[in-house]
Amino acid sequence: MTRRARDVLLDILREEGITHVFGNPGSTEMPLMDALVDAPDITYVLGLQEATAVAMADGWALASGRAGFVNLHAMGGLGNAMGVLVASKASETPLVVTAGQQDTRHLMTEPWLSGDLVALAHPVCKWAKEVRRGEDVGQALRRAFAICRTPPCGPVFLSLPMDVLDEPVTGRTPPASAPPRVGPSPDAGLLAEKLAGLDPDRVLIVLGDDLPASVSPGLVAFAEAGGFPVWGTQLTSRAAFPAAHPCWAGVLKPDFAVMRAHFEHAEAIVLVGGRALVAYPYRAAEPVPEGVMVLHVADNPEAFGREHAADMALLGDIGATLTAAAERLGHLLDRAAVEARLDARAGRMRAAHDALRAEILLETALPLSPDAAVLAALDALPPDTLITNDSAATFGKVQDLLTTRPGRYFFSRGGVLGCNQPAAVGASLAGAGLVVSFAGDGGAMYSPQALWSAARHRAKVLYFVFNNRRYGVLQNVAKSLGYSNAVAGRFVGMEINGPAIDFQALAASMGVPSARADDRDAITAAVAAALRRDGPSLIEIAIR
């Protein structure tokens, strides 16, 4: 059987579970666009800018648990997307990123729209190649999907010349390789035995920011087996442990001195995954005090020793390793004592949350504080809402009240603004139900094109824009570092006023209904109205 290479590409997309192709097309992508005309089972999601397209694919991948697929336009389109690819690599999102290349028959003359796409993609991708023969398209695409899903996950890139996709190919579609079977670490029992000999109140679990929702059952079982407190990191790309669980201790601020204070009385830290000890800005402090044992569980060898030397390193499937360790702990520890610790933790959590809520609710002056605004939004939302977040408004006291759940919370961990709003569209298209986007006014202007895509596909996304008309996080960092102009309140390039951005007019221009809500009652009413709509809405909240 003879087909065109682009037909093989579509067959593989179907077999890999791709239901949506995200992109922004140009002339070099015409072969793929032509093929999609006769592929009604694959939805093409148009982003009005390439960064928006990649971020939508990122959100789709994180919410669906599958690799996402995005198609960009030549060298310029890939260049526009680079910032979001930086974030996708940091978040370890499995993505297959492609871009159209000029016809290979005149690449030697460096024609218009040509360029070294592989060299451009290489720093922000795990693997990057250009396909030069139609017969290689299938094999290259299968390899791309396999590599992007292998821990540490991340984006990969394929350059697809126009003529290559139109070349005839023979034979069957290349099959996918069997996924590797990775079991628990053989030292899971030894980990349990080591912990059983320690004071359980001095054992901490610290989570890396790269843990998928699939490890959550093992994490919960392990924490419950010992009654151990679990700490996450503020700058996490996703949630792997339910914040409502009594073992949840909260998030570690990205400050080594603060971390060290939390760890000061620990005997052992069980470090799970990678990139848990993240600091910003620099502080001359070591996060782990001398004498504290570090026991590290990870699914890829790159994680070990990156942030701190491990006294014990366990390589294997994280969820399976922790489940096995939990089973062994169940035989080694006094269950009644563990249950008493869990009950005590639950009681302390309820009391702390009640006190914190009461403290924040006292803040009624307008404009609202960031904590009061975020809490009002959270209280108005249904309990199973998926939250995408890149707003510094959530970094205060209210962060301890965020209802983060595995698979239902994602943060733009790479520090790249403009990811969150389009990611919310992708998550909605993956069938995630109601999706909420938390963004500041500065971040909301990096990819406002996402509003148009949300309206076009009637995505059930509720956009919150917390507006203080400035880059507040930058001003706070400048103050914390003691810069004299910042202390005096004089900032350069950090104010977003004169003119102020009219977010309701911007939303209307993209086909998205909007409202301004400045107090708690107005926020509640605006959310209720948005939930009655079929499609996206935007709510702007003025904050201090």
Tell me the span between the first and last alpha carbons.
66 Å
Radius of gyration, in angstroms, nearest whole number:
24 Å
> What is CATH's topology name of the largest domain?
Rossmann fold
Strand order of the largest sheet: 3-2-4-5-7-6
Large-scale geometry: globular
Oligomer type: single chain
Major sheet size, sense and barrel closure? 6 strands, parallel
Given this structure, which CATH class of the largest domain is correct?
A: Alpha Beta
Per-chain topology:
Layout: E1 2-4, H1 5-15, E2 20-23, H2 30-36, E3 43-46, H3 50-64, E4 68-72, H4 74-91, E5 95-101, H5 117-121, E6 128-130, H6 137-149, E7 155-161, H7 162-166, E8 168-170, H8 188-196, E9 203-207, H9 216-226, E10 230-233, E11 248-252, H10 256-263, E12 268-272, E13 293-298, E14 312-315, H11 318-332, H12 335-361, H13 370-380, E15 386-389, E16 409-411, H14 420-429, E17 435-440, H15 441-444, H16 449-456, E18 461-467, H17 472-480, H18 484-487, H19 503-509, E19 514-516, H20 520-531, E20 537-542
Parallel strand pairs: 2-3, 2-4, 4-5, 5-7, 6-7, 9-10, 9-12, 10-11, 12-13, 13-14, 15-16, 15-17, 17-18, 18-20, 19-20
Antiparallel strand pairs: 1-8
